[in-house]
Amino acid sequence: MPELPEVETVRASLARDLVGRKVKSVVLTNGRVVRRHKTAKDFRTLIEGHAIKSVDRLGKNLVLALDNGTHLVIHLGMSGQLLRAQGPKDPKPKHTHAVFTFSQGGELRFVDPRTFGEMYVSIPPPEGSEVEISKFARLSIGGDGLGIRKAVPELAHLGIDPFEDQIGWDRFAAILRSRSTPLKAVLTDQDIIAGIGNIYADEILFGAGLRFDRPSESLSTIEIRRLHRAISEILTEAIKYGGSTLDDEQFVDPDGKPGTYQQFHQVYNREGQACYQCRQPIVREVFRGRSTFYCPKCQS
DNA sequence: CAAAATTCCTGACTGC
DNA sequence: TGCAGTCAGGAATTTT
Fold this sequence. Notes:
alpha+beta; N-terminal domain of MutM-like DNA repair proteins; Helicase, Ruva Protein, domain 3; 2 domains; 4-stranded antiparallel β-sheet; 7 helices; 19% strand; globular; DNA-binding
């Protein structure tokens, strides 16, 4: 399940060889992947014949700027993969829903068994029109996050991206104290912080020594600083190891290579196993319909 | 207004 | 062996 570290791994890989290349054609074999567009043809027309200027990321979204001023947004959902191929002779994996062919040769395929992923082309808002940026993102200081939100209105609602936007612990404190939501709900709410999903929320909370159900406004200053630090530390480490690939081997980078950060997971998917810190068994609990893993002794 | 439940979907796994 | 049932989860949508 691609979260920020996995999406960033894909972004870095694509940025290496996609920038400057021109999309010759797009073949769609499952319309659901472009469900935001009225027809698949609408999607194709906006892309074909245009070069890719940059490959960015905001939260879990990939944002490819095209030379016609539009942006191709790709969200991998639960099981989406972007895979390079030499050409049409390369065997297509099952559930290949879209194939981009480049003028200079080579292909990029969008593969997604569970079809929660999607792609769409975002038309830039007219000059002078004001895009409503999420209040949390507005707190950020520098980075490209605000620029992407202004160019891609569909992403303007996203909260702080831990890397594209930057936020000090004091501003983070203001966000946490403004609500009484359980911590895990805050971390996984894309409108507050963009990019964290079920796996990294659990890992970050363990890193900060905090329980998932602590009301966000109940944290002391020290705890807020621990959480603020854990967010960047855990995500940075995960990116360093190319993200997490679980036993289902669903996440791979565009070259088909899995990530290796799963070997450092402290709690996720470790129900009943000994905590690496205190040897107590890790507990699994369902929180808002999702599995939550934590150490009852190390997290409070 | 916010929070919880529902929906979309397929593959892996469980129990009989 | 096969089949029905369950689970997994991001995010938009619906319900409470």
